[in-house]
Amino acid sequence: MSREMGRDDFVISARSVFLKKRNRQKFSLLTLIIISIIILSLEYFKSGPINQARLITKDIIIKASYVASIPFKSITKTYYSFIDHLNMYDEYEKLKIEQKKNKSLILESNFFKEENQRLKKLIDEKNLYKEDFHITKVLLDQKSPYLRSMLINKGFKHGIKLGAAVRSNSYFIGKVVDSNYLTSRILLISDLNSKIPVIIEPGAVSAILSGTGDNKLGKIEYLPENNNIKDGNVVYTSGADGIISSGIPVGKIVIDNDHAKVKYFSDFTQIEFVKVYYKK
Amino acid sequence: MSIPNKFYSSILSIFPLLILIVSILLSSKYNFTYSGHNLSFNISYLLIFYWSLKKPNYLGLGFIFLAGILNDVIQDNPLGISSIEYLSLCIITGFARSRIILQNLFYDWVFFLISILIAGSINYIILVFIFDVPIIYNSLLLGLFATFLLYPLLAKILSWIDNIVQLSGNDKKK
Q1: Which CATH number goes with the domain that contains B20?
Q2: Which domain holds residue B87?
Q3: ipTM over 0.95
Q4: pLDDT tens-place string over residues A149-162
Q5: Interchain contact, B78 vs A140, CB within 8 Å
Q6: Within 13 Å, how many C-alpha atoms sit on residue A10's CB side?
Q7: Looking at chain B, which residue has its C-alpha nearest residue A61?
Q8: What confidence tens digit (pLDDT) does each residue in B117-143 have?
Q9: Is B94 a domain residue?
Q10: Candidate from A22, A144, A185 with C-beta closest to B28
Q11: A218: helix, coil or strand?
């Protein structure tokens, strides 16, 4: 008898939870769950009108989210500029020393560039990667344990294609993984799913740079057994995938407990504008 | 009621929804890395659980559904997954409201842990087994535990907000 009562109570509770509409509500919980499941199942359609509708919805939500997040972004910006002001003098002293070093490096680099062009002409090499790029604003940056990505203000209307390389200043930061009509998503190199073919100089050692979810350090995989990698070696993109140009600086090698890690050159938390490369 | 008062009380009545949307938009800002582990507080879990348990009329189910869609677009999840997750929290709190007579902070807190474990499991089972998204289990558990620890503090703040909203509601009636 009591068991039947218990079951009846449960059925009454379930009915009230799933089917009862609250005040001023048009949908019951059950209806909304069914709608969610239908929307979720539409993920299997990767082309056609359903995909178009999804891309437009995403564009609208991303643009609206960007507008809504402007006040909070300005608060963060003010905070960082305040911190910058506090550290201004120390920074100035450091930069003065660095500038002296950079001047000599620029001269050296110009010499190597010209020499490289002369040698390329000699062997008749064609430039496969044209340096066409858009400078675009970062609408939203997203950081969660499973995702390190950014949403940018250019989409396939602007010629952005999947796999396109993205730089912040001169440094490689990721590639385009999702392109909507007006916006795109960049998968940062720090994301767990990111795998980039790289080359480590000096020595031209090829390897794969994998993201770990950490914003500062990445993991080097598939290194040859007898490698001579040291602290401070520079990691560049190798261009082995045929999509990303070669020679874009990514980071520096840090040896931690006999494991080679890469310290990224870019600070992903401070990026406001990025360069997205595309082929004409 | 004068126009500024009307404006103030209408802002307060949509306050829960505003906080939920802001918490989703700023989800990346309360994400910390501690000794190699990623610690992420899921504030939207806290808000949805609290309001659907205590004041179900403040946060409509339709808005919770839309907040889920917004979260999916921002987090690059398959569309609809967060809605299911949030609505599953509402199912659990709905059962709790109809079955539990005595409610206090400690019971709510323990119940919150059970709820986020169930809702999180539904979400991650779908992500891993249907959409093949790689998950760091340590980070997931750490994040859920951190969210669980935050509940008493946020419950106090939200009950304080509730009081203000209630007072404005009484003003409206007058």
Answers
A1: 1.10.1760.20
A2: 3-169
A3: no
A4: 888 888 888 888 88
A5: no
A6: 6
A7: B70
A8: 998 888 888 888 888 877 777 777 888
A9: yes
A10: A144
A11: strand
